[in-house]
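DM between two lab members

TW: hey, do you still have the SDR family NAD(P)-dependent oxidoreductase entry open?
JB: yeah, one sec
JB: this one, 288 aa:
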Amino acid sequence: MDRPLAGRVALVTGGSRGVGRGVALGLGEAGATVYVTGRTLRGRSADVPQVGGSLEDTVADLERLGGVGVPVVCDHRDDAQVRALAERLGHEHGQLDVLVNNVWGGYEGLHAWDNRGQTWNAPFWEQPLTLWDDMFTAGVRAHYVASAVCAPLLIAAGGLVVNISFFAGQRHRGQENVPYFLAKNADDQMARALANHLRPHGVTAVSLYPGLVRTEGVLLAPEGAFDFSNSESPQFLGRAVAALAGDPQHLSRTGQVLVAAELAQEYGFTDVDGSVPRSVRAEYENGG
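TW: and the structure you got?
JB:
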């Protein structure tokens, strides 16, 4: 099997489960050495026990696909832990080819709230105020800190920074969840701003959007809550990151907002079941 990222080093933040786990698997099957962070080394998370998943699980599956996995227990709300990780990468490799800013505490509260769908869709004044910090402290700020401490390593490699975001950041109609809309918009703007600083050093920074992803949390939703006819596996997003990282011209995309399904059409990769999900960009741009 072709291993286009053999010899490359990647860091995926928040990879115990969900999209982060899928990104790690996608990079692993492309042959990369993938450092995967999370708070759950083994067993089940005390914070989100409903969805399970651990770093050991992710790394075991990643290595079965042909990559090399390095589990790193790291709470991205603690800057000292993130700096220590960057120092470790520097000592062990001297550079970083791919940073995927995925860690996201924004959904954890949902698993603790009764009637989580109603809470998520409620007017902002009826939602828990903690939702803001979940989105920004364990999300946007964590992405910024990881980018800042890893920047010298990325510059050494002419690397790639990917902020995992979503269409909510571009939406101009409807009643989107307010902290979520602002957080995803911030991630997109951060990628554009990082690109301005990193472009002269040959480093690419982008935002990347999935469609509806069949994560563990999404699959816990009540029957009928989602239409999975055009959904994606978490690993599909990993294949998108791998394709982008393997493109020697990725710098030409710096500062852009990209969509995984559109990259699949361009680069010719498929989801794990052989399907090619359809981009939902137009639906969101039209207020869907």
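TW: got it. The chain has ten helices and seven strands. The two ends are 39 Å apart (CA to CA).
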